[in-house]
Amino acid sequence: MLNRQELTDIIRGFEPETEFPEGTQLLEAFVPAEKIYALVEKLKSDNKSSFNYLISLTAVDFLTHMTVVYHLESTEFRHLIVLKSKLADREDPKIDSLTALYPTAEYFEREVFDLFGIRFNNHPNLQRLFLEDDYGYPLRKDFRDEINIIER
Amino acid sequence: MNSIIEYFTDIFKGISSLCAGLRITGKYFISPGSIVTQQYPENRATLKMEERFKGEIIMPHDENNLHACTGCGICEMNCPNGSIEIITDRVANAEGKLERVIDKHIYHLSMCTFCGLCVKTCPSDALAFGQKFEHAVFDRNHLTKVLNQPGSKLRKEAK
Amino acid sequence: MSEEIIKDVIVGENEDYIINMGPQHPSTHGVLRFEVCLKGETVKYLIPHIGYIHRGIEKMCEANTYQQLIHLTDRMDYLSAHMNNEAVCLVVEDALQVEIPERVKYIRTILDELNRIASHQLWWCAFGMDLGALTSFFYGLRDREHILDIFEESFGSRLLHSFVMPGGLMHDVHPNFQKRTKEFIKYFRKKLPEYDQLLTGNIIFQNRVKGIGFMSKKTAIGYGVTGPSARGSNYSCDIRKIAPYGMYDKVQFNEILETGGDTFARYKVRIAEMWESMNIIEQLIDNIPEGDFTAKMKPIIKLPAGEYFRRVETARGELAVYVVSDGNKTPFRMKFRTPNFSNLFVINSLASGHKIADLIAISGSLDLVIPDIDR
Amino acid sequence: MSSNIYDFSTLTGSIHTWLSGMMSSGWVNFTELVLVGLAFLLMYALLGLFLVYAERKVCAFMQNRVGPNRVGKWGIFQTIADLIKLLMKELIPIRKSDPLLFNLAPFIVIICSFLALAALPYAKGLQAIDFNIGVFYVMAVSSLSVVGILIAGWSSNSKYSLIGAMRSGAQIVSYELSVGLSLLAIVVFSGTMQLSGIVESQANGWWIFKGHIPAFISFIVFLIASTAEINRGPFDLAEAESELTAGFHTEYSGIKFAFFFLAEYMNMFIVAALGATVFLGGWMPFHVGNWVGFNQIMDYIPSLVWFIVKTFFIIYLIMWIKWTFPRLRIDQLLTLEWKYLLPISLVNIVFIAFIVLMGWHF
C-alpha cells in the first residue's frame, strides 16, 4: 500500500508533465489527453503500482472545457488514484480509448460518448448505449430540451 | 471396477438428493396450516396497515375543522417532484392587518413518490401520512387532491 | 402505416440464426434485450442491448438538493435501496466532516444486512424459477415477506424506503424493530437449510449449474465484475473489508470466497452470505446504543467546492458515488459507478459456447437488476 | 376367486338387450357406438377439467399457498371459467405461417390422446376395445402425438417454437424406448399383451409385488420415462417457460391452445392409467395370497374405484415430481435416457426373462 507521496513520485517518474492539485480527498493527477494511454499502460504493467482495476471512467462538463476522469485501483495493494485529462475543444473532443488495457473501459467509454459526445479513437464499436442516435448529448451543461426537461 | 461402483453410488446419491427435495414439498403439502396468503378483498374489514404506512399525504383536521397549515410553501420547495402547489391569499385578520392565509393546498398524488420530505420539513407539522392505499381511479384528475377541507381555518394556539 | 413487404428471410448456412431474448422475456429480470446468435442450441455470441429503462438519474441529480436526490438513488438498484442511499449520505457526511451518532451507525449497518438478505432471497427465488424449480419462488418470497414487514413497520414502505438522510435517519426506528428482527433471525435460521435441501443438494440442479459460465479472476478484474459474482472466482472485492464504513470495522465477519468460478460457486457464495449477514445482525441487534437519530444538520446542505468519492458494498457489488460540487445546494455532477453495469457485460465471454438453458442460468447467477444498469 | 366382483358387463349386457328389443341389430350397433363415443367425450371433458383443477390445487399446497378459491366453493369452477375464457379468446392468425398445418396440429395431438383412451380397462367388463395387442396399441398411439408437436413447432413460424419442437421431438422419440422396455418387462411376466389378460394375471397379487425387485425397477423406469414422454416435470423442455416462453405452443391462442393444454393433461391420465393397469393391477382389488376373508372384503370395493385410486396415486406422484425439481438441459436429458435408463431396462428384461424361466416369481 503505497502512500500518496510515493504514488506521486511514481506518476511523475512516468509522466513529468502531470500537476497534482492540493487538498483533495484522493490523489488526483491532471494528465495531458494524448499522454493518458501511455501513462495508464505503464501504471498497469509496473508491478510496484499495478493498477489493474478501472473502477470508473466518466466525464464532467465544466462549460469552458470537459475533463475525462479515471478512477484506478490496484487489487493487490488497494491504493487508489484519480487521473483527469482536460479536453479544451468542445465541438469534437477526442481522447485515446483504454479498451486494450481494461475490457470494462469499452462500455464506460460508450456511455460517456452517449451522454457527453466525447469520441474515443480506436474504440472497437463506438455506438450510443442508452439513447437514440438523433438525441443530443444530455449531460452537457448547455443541453436544452424544452419538451422533457422542465427548468424549475 | 471402481467406475462401476462410482456409477451406482452416483445413482444412489442422486436419488437420495431427489428424495430430500421431495420431502420438503411433501411436508408443505400436508401442512396447510402454514399457509400465509391473506385473502385481501375478504379481510378488508380486519386489515390494519402499520400506522407509519406511507399511503398518501393528508392534512389532519381536528373535530371543529381546524388544521395547522400556515401556507408558508416550505413543502412546495422541498418536494423533488413538484407534486405540491400552495395557493394563498391575503385576508384581513382581527387587527385589520393583511395576513397570508392558505387558500388551496393542491397535492398531485400522481406525481408523488412518498419520499416524506414534506412531512419532515413542515415547520408546523401540518402534513401527515394517511393509511389509504386503494388509489385506483377512473379519471386522472381525481388524483389531484385539495388537502385542506373547505371552510377549514388555521388552528390558533396561544403563542 | 402501409403494409410494407417483409423480405423473406431464408436462413442460409453462413447466415447467423439470431433470436431476440427480451425486452419482454420471463428470465431477463427486467427490460434487457439479449441478441443471441445461435448455432442449433449452442450460443455463438451474445450482444446485450440496454437503455429501455434509462431515466437519466444523473441528469436529475444535478437539479435536486442532496436530501431530494435520496428518493432517486432508491430507484437505481431497488433491491438494495438502502445501501444506495447510504452511499450518498456517506459522501455528503465525508464532505462536511459531520460525525454521525453511534446509534445511526448501528441501525444503518443492520438495515444494510437485512436488505442484503432480502435481495439474496429474491435472487434465490428467481434463480430457482429460471432453472424450472417453480416452488423455490414461493418459499423465498414467503421468507422475504418477514423482512418487508419489518421495513414497513419502521419506514412505512416495503421496498423503496427513502429513510436515510444525509446526517442520520429521517426518523427513529419503530420501538419493536429489535424484537421483530430477532424473531426473523430465529425463523430464518430454520428455513435457510430448507433452501439447501430443495435446491443446492439436488442432483438435477447441480448438473444444470456445475461447470458452466466459468469466470477466471483475471476476467473478473478486467470486466470490473464485483460483488458475490466476482467472489465466486476467488477475487476478494468486499468493500466492507477494503474500505469499511458504518459498524463494519467493529463487527467480526469473514468474506466468503469460492474458488470454483462457475455458476455453482456464485450460488454458494450468495447462500453463505445470507448466513454471514445473519451473524452480523446478531452481533449488533442487542446493543444498539441510545441517542438521537440524526446529527445536527443545516436545512440546506451545501458541499464545499471539490470532488468527493465514496464506495459501498451493495447486494450486487461495489457502488461508487463520485460527486463534483461547486459549492451550491445542488451537485455540479454526480456519477454512480453501479455494480450491475459492469457485471452485465461479462456475460458474453461467459455464455458463448454454452446452450440456451445455460445462458439463462448464467444470467441468473450474475443477479442482474436492470434499472441499475440503465440509471 | 374373483367371482363376486361386480361385473360391469351385466350392465352393458342389459343395455344391449334393451336396445335390441327396440331396433334391428344394425341400428343397435350404431347407437351403441354413439353411446360409447358420447361416454368417452363426456369423460374426456370432465377428466380434463378435474385434472387441471387438481394440478393447480396440489401445486398450490406444495408451494405453501391456497390455490384457486374464488370461483365456486373451493375454486371448483375455476377450470370451467378458464375454458370459457379460452373459448372467448381471439384466434390470432400468424403471418407467414402454414395455415393448414398450423390448424391441423392441435387436432393430431387431441386425436392421439383420444385413441389411447379407448383401449384402457376401466373396470371388470368395462372396456371399449380389448385388443389382444393392447399394450402395443397404446404405445403406438401415444407416440403419434410427437408428430402433432413437430408440426405445431414448425408451422407457427417462430424461432422459439421451432427450437421447442426440435427439443420435444428428440425427447419423446428417445424416451419411447425405455417406456416400451419397461412395459415389455411386465408383458414377459404376464405372458400376454392383452390388457385385460394382464389384469387377470394379477388376480393373486399385483405385478409390482409378485415381480419383486425387477418389477419395481421397471416401475421406476416407467415413471421417469413416461414423465418425459408427456413433456412434464423435470423434462418439460419443449415448453420451458423460462427459456422459450412457451415452446411449441407459443403462437397458439384461444381454443387451439386449450387443445394442447387439455391433451397434455389427458396424456398424463393415460400414462398413469397404463402404469396402474400394468404394474398395480388395474381394477383388480388388493389380494394377499390365501387370506380368503381379507380378499372377500377387498372384493366389495367396486373395481372402478380401485382403478381410479391407483391412477390418481400415480398422477399425484407425477405432479409431486414436477413441482419439486428444476428442469434438465437437453443434452443431460438425452444422456439420462441413453446412458442410464436404457441399459438398466435392458439388463432388467434379461434378468426377468431368467426369473420367469426359473419360475422364481410368485
List keywords for this structure.
heterotetramer; B: 159 residues; alpha+beta; 2 domains; 3-stranded antiparallel sheet; two-stranded antiparallel sheet; 7 strands; 21% strand; elongated; D: mainly alpha
CATH class of the largest domain in chain B: Alpha Beta
Instruction: Kindly report the oligomeric state of this protein.
Output: heterotetramer
Give the number of DSSP strands of chain C.
8
Per DSSP, the total helix count of chain C is 15
Please identify the top-level CATH class of chain C.
Mainly Alpha
CATH overall fold name of the largest domain in chain B: Alpha-Beta Plaits
Question: Tally the helices of chain B: what do you get?
Answer: 3
Under CATH, the homologous superfamily of chain C reads Cytochrome-c3 Hydrogenase, chain B
> How are the strands ordered across the major sheet of chain C?
1-2-3
The overall pLDDT average of chain B reads 86
Amount of helix of chain B = 10-25%
Poorly predicted ranges of chain B (pLDDT <50, ≥5 residues)?
A: none
| SS-based class of chain B | alpha+beta
CATH architecture of chain C: Orthogonal Bundle
Question: Can you give the helix content of chain C as a percent range?
Answer: 40-55%
**Tally of discrete structural domains of chain C:** 1
Q: Uncertain runs of chain C with pLDDT below 50, 5 residues or more?
A: 1-6
Greatest contact between two chains:
A-C, 32 and 33 residues
Over the alpha carbons, how many angstroms does the gyration radius of chain C reach?
22 Å
Sheet-strand content of chain B, in percent, reads 15-25%
Strand-pairing-aware structural class of chain C: alpha+beta
What this model shows, in words?
The complex is a heterotetramer of chains A (152), B (159), C (375) and D (362). In chain A, strand 5, helix 3 and strand 6 form a beta-alpha-beta unit. By secondary structure, chain A is of the alpha/beta class. Chain A has a single domain, classed as 2-Layer Sandwich (Beta Polymerase, domain 2), CATH 3.30.460. Chain A is built from three helices and six strands; from the N terminus they run αβαββββαβ. In chain A, the strands form two sheets. In chain A, strands 1-4-3-2 form a four-stranded mixed β-sheet, covered by helices on one side. With 159 residues, chain B is an alpha+beta fold. The termini of chain B are far apart. By secondary structure, chain C is of the alpha+beta class. Chain C has a single domain, classed as Cytochrome-c3 Hydrogenase, chain B (Orthogonal Bundle), CATH 1.10.645. In chain C, the strands form three sheets. In chain C, strands 1-2-3 form a three-stranded antiparallel β-sheet. A three-stranded antiparallel β-sheet of chain C has the order 6-7-8. Chain D has 362 residues and is mostly helical. Chain D folds into two domains: 71 residues; 267 residues, no CATH class. Chain D is built from 15 helices and no strands. Classes of the chains: A alpha/beta (152), B alpha+beta (159), C alpha+beta (375), D mainly alpha (362). Chains B and C meet through helix 1 and helix 3 of B and helix 2, helix 5, helix 6 and helix 7 of C.
